[in-house]
Write a sequence for this structure.
């Protein structure tokens, strides 16, 4: 008998001892478990914490391709879900699974929801998170885009470039940090100016571990190197925190060929006619008999 069948038999007895439990898996690999029962539970290698102020509304389910949605409500606390982690984006797109569980025998359980976290609203020491079902992924447009620039992301399956190739990554400690957005280094020899523009800066230790930002500017100021992000990171980066700075690609064919030697995997259409050519109106041609245009 499966766990779901055992739970169904338990519910058919008339008196039940059930509660709800849900597991949250962040993109940085951290797994957290919660339950609305008054004592902690443990199954599937996850500890489900009680008395966290977490609760979930009923799942709105439908047939066909409709998206199954629900909401999670809870109080912000340092021990469970903190406002700082939400602000840093650590829960954006996190995976969520939910079960109905017999708390007297946790082998009797049934999964009732699987999906991801969507929008999160927070105020007054509490939060409200939208939970999106698995069918929400079907709303993402798929297919190739016909454009001059490359549609691949540097290092992905379409690009295939190995970012760990020597000369394309700088791993170093943070030195001078301003507003969690501007990083100044005393020296970064071996990399041309603008080498990291359009690239990614990833934090690998400290309070901002796991966070990353797109690089807006990469410039040389005297002997110093300045890396500037488009947006500040959501947590504080201190001098000494480990960073990984990856080279950037501006999606042009010339860059793919010269900087990365990866032209065979270029995913753009640089020779596609532009808008001016497509909407050009017919025009009367001048004389094409080879004679003088003078009359």
């Amino acid at each position: 008998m499966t766990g779901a069948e055992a739970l169904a038999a338990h519910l058919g007895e008339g008196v039940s001892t059930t509660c709800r439990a849900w597991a949250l898996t962040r993109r940085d690999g951290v797994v957290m478990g919660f339950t609305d029962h008054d004592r902690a539970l443990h199954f599937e290698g996850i500890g489900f914490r009680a008395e966290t102020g977490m609760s979930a509304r009923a799942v709105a389910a439908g047939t066909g391709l409709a998206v199954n949605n629900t909401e999670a409500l809870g109080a912000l606390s340092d021990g469970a879900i903190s406002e700082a982690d939400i602000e840093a984006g650590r829960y954006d797109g996190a995976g969520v699974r939910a079960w109905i569980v017999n708390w007297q025998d946790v082998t009797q359980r049934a999964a009732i929801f699987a999906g991801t976290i969507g929008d999160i609203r927070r105020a007054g020491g509490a939060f409200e998170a939208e939970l999106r079902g698995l069918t929400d992924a079907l709303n993402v447009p798929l297919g190739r885009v016909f454009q001059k620039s490359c549609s691949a992301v540097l290092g992905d399956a379409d690009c295939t470039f190995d970012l760990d190739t020597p000369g394309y990554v700088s791993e170093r400690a943070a030195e001078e940090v301003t507003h969690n957005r501007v990083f100044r280094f005393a020296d970064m020899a071996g990399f041309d100016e603008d080498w990291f523009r359009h690239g990614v800066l990833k934090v690998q230790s400290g309070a901002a571990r796991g966070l990353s930002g797109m690089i807006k500017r990469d410039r040389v100021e005297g002997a110093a190197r300045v890396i500037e992000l488009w947006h500040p990171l959501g947590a504080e980066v201190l001098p000494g925190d480990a960073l990984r700075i990856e080279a950037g690609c501006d999606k042009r064919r010339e860059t793919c060929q010269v900087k990365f030697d990866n032209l065979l995997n270029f995913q753009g259409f640089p020779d596609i006619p532009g808008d001016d050519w497509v909407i050009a109106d017919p025009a009367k041609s001048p004389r094409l008999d080879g004679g003088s245009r003078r009359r």
Summary: The chain has two domains: 3-139, 169-263. Residues 202 and 212 are 4 Å apart (CA to CA). The chain has a mean pLDDT of 84. The domain at 169-263 is CATH 2.40.30 (Elongation Factor Tu (Ef-tu); domain 3).
